[in-house]
Amino acid sequence: MSALILEARDLELRFGGVQAANGASLKVHANERIAIIGPNGAGKTTFINLCTGYLKPQAGWVFFAGSDITALSPRAITRLGVGRSFQIPQLFLENTVIENLLLALSAREGTWSPFLRLDRHPKTEEMWALLDIVGLKEAGRRIVRELPEGMRKLIDIAVALALEPKLIFMDEPTSGVSSHEKFQVMDTLARALDARATTAIFVEHDMDVVARYASRVAVWAGGRIAHEGTPDEILNHPEVRETVIGVGV
Ligand SMILES: Nc1ncnc2c1ncn2[C@@H]1O[C@H](COP(=O)(O)OP(=O)(O)O)[C@@H](O)[C@H]1O
Ligand SMILES: [Mg+2]
Q1: Interval between CA 132 and ligand 1 midpoint (Å)
Q2: Which domains does the chain show, CATH number per domain?
Q3: 44 lines ligand 1 (CB under 6 A)
C-alpha cells in the first residue's frame, strides 16, 4: 500500500453528555478514496472537524505527513495541504463563483486586503481552468446566492481544491444534489482528484455512490469506526446492512 499520509489516533471529544469522538482512529494512505458512512449523530462531522483543526480533541492525536497537527489552527492545517469542504457550503454568497475561488486563494496566500483587485488577480487563469475541470465554467461569473444547492456544494469543493490540498475531507459532497445528478457530480470530482493525485475522505449516505467511488469504507457508530473494509465487504456485511444500510441513512 502507498505511503501513510494521515493518521488519527484515539481521538476523544465529549459535548456535555454526548461522546462525539470515542477513540476514533483512522489511517489514510496516499491516493485512497475513503467513504465514511453511518447514521446521523455518529460523529462523522466531528471527526472531520478534529482532523482539520476546527475542533480540538480532549485526548488523542492527528498526524499529517508524519507531523503532529493536533494543536494547529484550521488555517495552519490548510497551509500544510489538508483541505475540506463543508456539509453546508461556506461561501461568500454575494460574490461570483470565480471571486470565491480567488478570495480563498488570497486568504491562504495572505495577500487579501480590502483593496485587493479580484479582476487582476495573477491566478485568475488558473482558477478558470479549475472551474472548467469541475464543470462550473459556465457559472463562473454568476452570483453564488442565485445558484442551486448542489452547485454550491461543488463550488465549496472547488474552493478547497483551489488551495491544492494533498488530502481533502468532503462532508456529504452529494447531499443537496438531485439523485440523477449524483454520479455526474462524483465523476467530475473523481476526475479532478485523479488529475491532482489528491487523496480523499468523504462522508456519504448514498450506497450506490459509495460502491462506485470508494476504495475503502469506514462505518462510523458512537464516535468511532465500528467496521472498515472494501466497499464489497462493508456493503455485504450482515450487521452493517442491518444497522446502517437497512435503516436508510
Ligand atoms: N458543537 C456541538 N455542541 C454540542 N454537541 C455537538 C456539537 N457538534 C456535534 N454534537 C453532537 O455530537 C454528536 C455527533 O455529531 P456529528 O459529528 O455532527 O454527527 P454526524 O456528522 O455523524 O451526523 C451528535 O450527538 C451531535 O448532536
Ligand atoms: Mg455530519
Answers
A1: 35
A2: 4-245 (3.40.50.300)
A3: yes
107-120 pLDDT, tens digit per residue, is 777 766 666 677 77
Cell of 186: 462524483
- CB within 8 A of 136, min separation 6: which ones? 97, 151, 154, 155, 158
- 72 pLDDT band, cuts 50/70/90, is very high
Any atom of ligand 1 within 6 Å of the Cβ of 15: yes
For residue 249, the model assigns a pLDDT of 43
Atom of ligand 1 lying closest to residue 49 CA: 17
Residue 29 phi/psi, 5-degree rounding, is -105, 155
Any idea what the Cα angle at residue 223 is, between residues 42 and 244, rounded to 5°? 40
